[in-house]
Amino acid sequence: MKIAIHNNKKPNTLKAVNYLYKNLKQSGFSFDVEHPDIVITVGGDGTLLSAFHHYADQLDRIRFVGVHTGHLGFYTDWRDYELNDLIRALKVDSGQSVAYPLLDVKVTCNDKRPVEHFLCLNESTIKRLGSTLRSNVYIKGKLFESFRGDGLCVSTPTGSTAYSKSLGGAVLQPSLEALQITEMASINNRVYRTLSSPIIVSSDEYITFRPSVAEDYVLTIDHIALNDRQVKQIDYRIADERIRFASYRHMNFWHRVEGAFIGSQDDEDGDR
Ligand code: NAP
To answer: pTM of whole model > 0.85?
Structure first.
């Protein structure tokens, strides 16, 4: 099994990375940053996002494992004080994995730029720099609403705990095959009218935004911002590709959500 380690540069991360290199080598693992079988990310959820984009062209063969050097994350199953447990799990690896849906983003521009495809793990957003964004929103090719406001966000199930949640989106169980649209500050009047609540569409549906002509759009693909495109149309659907995690232990999703956003509480009935 060939391993790559992808990490941020924080001091406690570097300490964990050194420990992993030394002990994985002693346990007989080899390292290959170009074509790994397993990518171990050390840092946070943001570090895993960055690794995902780095290895996005090899998703069919790579499995990811996330180590968090701070609080427990959504893409990170291991804490930095559990590295020996992780190495033990890697030694008895039998190829087990859990896969989650990704977002396919197809961008068509007004200029001669060829149509582009991007994959998102969390979400894609579109905003306008100089003014409000005006865009028609289509679901499965049919006009659904005319949006005017700060911007629009389309997120994956695993991205539902990230930006989408800050925009009032629902938290989705990550294995659901669905996409969610959330609005950023929509203006509602006689001309522009939106549902004004998050919309969740299923895997056989696709979403299209057709913004009014402008040159100052900012399109984001997870943490990556693209601001040089004269966007004509963006199509969103669930991608054929999926991200796979090496699932050495079961982490209950709702327990993670509770830990991240609510914190431990005493149950009045005492049955927690
Ligand atoms: P960042 O601005 O440095 O960090 C964004 C925060 O989002 C970090 O605390 C990160 O956790 C957390 N995060 C990332 N993915 C998550 C997920 N699926 N569920 C819950 N939390 C998640 O940027 P970054 O680390 O490169 O991450 C880019 C992401 O930031 C974008 O994809 C977007 O979702 C998010 N974002 C959020 C807002 C907002 O909520 N207002 C605005 C812009 C972007 P860690 O600390 O564990 O890395």
So the answer is: yes
